[in-house]
Amino acid sequence: MSVQIDWETELSDASFGLMQIKPYPVSSPTTIDALAAIIRMCSEANWRILPLGTGSSFPENFALKSDRTFAVASSRLREMSRLSNGRVYCQPGVSVNKVLLGDSSVQRKTIGGLICGSGDLATRNAAKSFWQTVQCVELIDAKGHTVSLTGPASAQQPLSARSAMLLESRGKAGYIVGIEFCADDLPLDLGHKVLGASAAENLSSPVSRQLSYRGSDALSLFDW
User: Fold this and answer.
1) pTM of the prediction?
2) Total domain count for the chain?
């Protein structure tokens, strides 16, 4: 059952970053807590979430599946820090050129967009090469819960099949809020790094990703 929400009242706090109401609500939250709260409200009110900045792309004649769609941008989630274990943590709004060396051929501007977005061959290769350094990914699921998924650089790599569906998912597999990856120095030089055949074979195909979306997003919250 649909629930009516006064978004201007509910999201009056500055941390929600409400930018517009019409023709559909758009917000750019400044904290993960604010983002999670928006996702929970949308889930409870039977609205859909359109993640902006984490891979969404719009072909010609694009139209939203529902007029009850809330667009949430990740552009203000830009925290980046070196962890005590030597790895690097970054949020999805961090600029690609802060993480990758020589990114001029990459079409995506943010790390979230690089991982989840589609693009030309150079962009996809950069995304897959960077992906091999990822230890874990945190995302918010359709229930507003934060979930940690194992990446290919983890010792638990065989458990990373679910996280691999994030590649080229266009934001339909959940909302990425944090990425932990291995890097001795920044920006990373991936120019010499080639994705091995075995690693390429382990990447989810578009068909298997679609099946995975249905399992991870039973509410179709991210099916914009």
Assistant:
1) 0.80
2) 2
